[in-house]
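Budget justification note: compute hours in this period were largely spent on complex prediction jobs such as the one shown. Inputs:
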Amino acid sequence: MATVPRPGSRSTKMLYLKKYFTEGLIQFTILLSLIGVRVDVDTYLSNQLPPLREIILGPSSAYTQTQFHNLRNTLDGYGIHPKSVDLDHFFTTRRLLNQVRQLDRLSVPSTELSAWLVHRDSETVVSASSQSSASIALDNGAGLEDVDDPDATPAMRGGSGAPESTYNLNTADSSLGAVAPEGTQEQGSRDGNDDLTKEDIDLIDILWRQDIDLGAGREVFNYSNRQKESEEEKPSPPESKDTDEEQESWRNGVNLQEAQPVDGETGESIPEQLPGLGSQTSLSLQECLRLLEATFPFGEESEFPAPVVAPEIAASTDEVPSTSQAVPLAPQLPPAEPQLDLEQQWQDIMAIMELQAMEVNNTNSSSVSGTSGTPETNAEGSFGPATRPTPINQDVSLHQASLPSCSQDFPPIFGPQLDSVSVAPRTATPRLSSSNSTNVNSTFGATNLTGIFLPPHINSSSSNNITSTPILPDPFSTLLEESMLDEISLLDLAMEEGFSQAQASQLEDELDSDSGLSLDSSHSPASPSSSETSCSSAASSSSTSATFSEEGAVGYSTDSEVATVETEEGAVGGYQPEYSKLCRMSYQDPSQFHGLPQLDSIGHNHTYNLPLSSEFAEHPELPISSVKKTVRDKSSSKFQPSQELLDKHASRDERRARSMKIPFSNEKIINLPVEEFNELLAKHHLSEGQLALIRDIRRRGKNKMAAQNCRKRKLDTIINLEQGVHDLRRDKARLLKEKMEFIRSIRQMKQKMQSLYQEVFTQLRDEEGRPYPPSEYSLQYSADGSVLIMPRSVTAEQSRKPEKKQKDKKK
DNA sequence: CAAACTTGTCATTCA
DNA sequence: AGTGAATGACAAGTT
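Corresponding output:
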């Protein structure tokens, strides 16, 4: 923030900044969309279970989703940096954008449009009042899924008419555009993410908060209110200063939304932030509508409503101030579910995503390739753009979080099962609105959903053999109850918790911690290690505690340099601190370390323990930091002018020793072993003052080295800890992924079991040839591997007394 | 000019 | 008891 030029008052500056930044984002997003970068809102949102989507994207997932991509895309592709916002550049971008649009409108992917539609949504609300189609779409609650819907398309097109702005983005274009492969989008986001540093995130966060301060209330988010406002405001173009501010504020909201997933700084739990985001979003939407309307006259209103949720869900949404209908999805989760679980879930998801990102990063470019979502990576990337190994991190992680991760991990779990099972009829669209409906639970297929997304108790209950549904008692649970059901239940429980809505907090937490650690780790490890390795042979970032112990050895090791010193100084203990070596090396061949940022930073002094007095007394011409010494000399005028040159390079103790006419060098005083030191003192007839000074010099000198070692040790410890955290995170992500896979496979097995069970059951006939009603009988595995058909009453009995297994009935 | 960092020093503790 | 190392705290200098 400090680097950002701010004309006028702080708030004004911020507004400018926001304005440019957000505008740039919008422009770039559009541009990216035109180019073909896919903002695949449809796929993710429509296919994903509402809760998950909600969790990942937040209450206003529809908006947020788009926002994220927009931000990333914008930053990625064109590097509009919040800090270096250039007005000319901005307008240039606009022109370019126009040109691009003109070149190929048809190429605009529908998905992309959806992203814009999200913004448009608010716009739609504003302008939609005049456009019936848009309003209808909203009312109908057409989900994002509807974007592709042929019916929806016309509505979208309808809005394309507004030629107000130079940016004439046709809705039709978006709808007609082919969806670019995910890889494209990822690539694009990846490219641009480099610019999103921690500072950027911080900036975004600040802007967001500022918006809140500016007065963006939750009420803004109320859809109806928003719409009204938008309608009212619509007549007045965003030209007025007030409007600009508002736009800025909404932009902030956008920024915030986009950045939020990445931002770990706040440390707030996502659930908490969500409301804030929502409020922010609402404001931003309002502004966005105006801005978009002015700039992009396309009319895809229909898409915005995408998140339409079932009424009951919406009702539950009230809690979430945020707003959009999308929010309602969250309610699906049982209210009783503790916040901690949500956080945990978020963490798990994030970890998985990170893992995927890491894995995909190298191998699969088409899927979330850039996702090196590792927390650390993110942090590194965000904080240390220059040194960060994987620039994409933030984008990637975010990207995954919002989309790929979901599609990859979850669809496999749910999609197949749902299809195969009775749930199959449910398509993505219905699922969105009714995912929490009872139907799902009733059927076995529901198990899948329930297992993962529904509260644990559902599954656990199933283990008890007593099924709530009379029609189709859960035979499967009965079968499995003794063997694996418990495990599954546990897993499910864990999974459910892991996937429940509130992972936002976890996400933030993870990001935050990541940012903190990874940030440092990314830089510190690299830089320190480089400097150390090259110069002082100190422990590198990767060095372990063992390295520390080695330091001492290094310090005392007799290098050629040390030997030189010894020859010069006489018989010295050979104690040469590593830092002194470092300094000397740098002096000898400064170019050697040129380009090592770390060394550059070390620039000042860094002679550490180097016996300057002796060294420089003999080689006064050495280019030591004369400036620094000069400063010191100014303060101390007790030395002879003739000695100034020497004093310039001498430490205080050196000067003191000289002033006291100590007959030997400070280096000897400090580094000689006690015995030799005492001998040295004995050889010379020294006054009390001289002896006291010598002892102080020795004490201080040793303490100085000790302090240096201590600090170095501390630093190394921190680095090692960071590395450990990184490793642990990676392991965690890997384990979580494995867990997911296991759960998935278990569910598939369940699925198969269920189908087999049903198949067998349907073919069973009693002595009279009558089928056994599934509601009254269940199949049970006996200890010897045989399968028994038992009355459910008996099964329930067994469940209560798992110890006693009855092997009766018919076989 | 202030904040952040670096470095040296002192005081203290421990081995 | 003396010595050295380790370390927290502080101050001064640098960036």
